Amino acid sequence: MIKLLAILLIVCLVITGFGACKTEQETLAINLDEVIITLERTACYGFCPVYTITIFGNGTVQYEGKEHVQTVGNQETEISEEKIRQIIREFERIDYFSLNDEYTERTITDAPSAITSITMNMETKTIKHYHGDFSAPEELTELEDKIDEIVNSEQWIQ
């Protein structure tokens, strides 16, 4: 059975002079079975954790620890459909598909990178984010951290 995630977009228009509000509703269906989200953390010159997390729309989370993590190798767990929705909302909140494909200017050196991607509705977007590039929006770093938080990647890293 195909699970569909309905995201309700509400547009509220204020009518001047009347103080009334009219709402228009649009439902966007996302086939969760086709959703794939990844977060890859890369090395720095020090001891930055190096790992990849892949999240599937069915709730499966695959972890691959590479360096400077407590758990090296592969692990698998599951998260709830609500947590999948929460991650998707975070991508939408920062308007991920409108961001640049990379933020890789070396404003400072010796910082790690994070590479995020999402596939949904047959569209894929990937962003390479060097943490020494100060032109990157703060919301992108917040998204990366939120993915870690929601899947509890700390269980494998620390």
List keywords for this structure.
158 residues; alpha+beta; seven-stranded mixed beta sheet; two-stranded antiparallel ribbon; 3 helices; 9 strands; globular; disordered N terminus
| Average predicted confidence as pLDDT | 86
- The structural class is alpha+beta
* Poorly predicted segments: 1-27
Number of DSSP helices? 3
Strand content: 35-45%
Computed CA radius of gyration, to the nearest angstrom: 18 Å
The largest sheet is: 7 strands, mixed
Overall body shape: globular
Order of strands across the biggest sheet? 6-5-4-3-8-9-7
Helical content class? 10-25%
The secondary-structure element order is EEEEEEHEEEHH
> How many strand units?
9
Q: Could you tell me how far the N terminus lies from the C terminus, measured between alpha carbons in angstroms?
A: 37 Å
